[in-house]
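ARCHIVE CARD
Drawer: 12
Card no.: 0347
Subject: one protein chain, sequence and derived structure
Cross-reference: see card 0346
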Amino acid sequence: MGAKRIFTLTAMLSAIIGLAPAFAGTPRPGSLETYKDWTIGCDNRGRCEAVSLMPEGGSWPDDPVTVGIVREPGGSSEPEIWISRDGKGREQLGLVIDDRKVATAISEEGEAKLDGAQAATLAMAIARGNRMDVLVGAKLVGQPSLAGAAAALRYMDARQGTAGTRAALVARGPLARSVVRSAPLPIVIRRADIPPGPAPQPLWREERAALGRLTGCADEMRDASPPELHRLSRTESLVLTPCGAGAYNFTSVPVIASGIAGRRTFRFASFDHPPGWSEAATHPMLVNAAWLADTATLESYAKGRGLGDCGGSESYVWDGTQFRLAQASAMGECRGARQWIKVFTADVVK
């Protein structure tokens, strides 16, 4: 059987598998891969993003420039490119690969985006190039490393099923775009409505003691602000229990309180996917937690270091019984990339 025939059968099988309904059980966030000075990740729907990093072991410029290449799944999609730096005001960027100007972009407050044919041309030039210069007029403002870009985009081609087709960025082949698999069906979360009503009453002394015993955070609670209480229903509240703090990360244990003030009972909040800092614990742990009542969303944001160029974040939606993962982003390399890569997304409906 010829190579083209094998490519065709493989692509057709991938397309059929891609049409299967999404499994709505345990969420499975994507992982990150690093190739020299580029890192890449894809979410559960096949959206992929590759991001440039500062060279490992080298000196960092005072004003680093980061480049990201994003592509949605499907054979008809084209890449989008963003460029980020600590710029001010409105500027026109010249994007030069190996001494050839490939594209221009307008930057607003240091952020620029390209799409369409210009972005596709630049993405392929980045994959093939050795040096990238970012110019404002004739002034050089940044040189993002291209080491590993081709490998990262080849990984993107493989994960999105475009390898061997005319839709690929690097691993191009003769097959039509139409054979590329479609995006998986989305996971849908129906969020609960938070009923109006008075804010939960502060915990009584006996309740604080019971909460400390349950969470194992009694010592940390003594020197911290009081636990945060947020209304979930007429009889239940979310309690964010302080359980330690560092220079830039504040840890809390999410607990559900049931019953009337003074006689409330407590249980650990349930999650369909454990928050990022829960792996070594016997109960869920949130970092820099925030509750958004209007959207019934609980957020956790853990920085790997104070600069904020690595870490992980999750957003959970309350469905009336548990917190369900709605979005997750991560950056595993502490190398200057402040825009983290999305590794999971779900559709939230009322």
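Annotation on reverse: The chain is about 15% helix and 35% strand. Confidence is low (pLDDT under 50) at residues 1-24.
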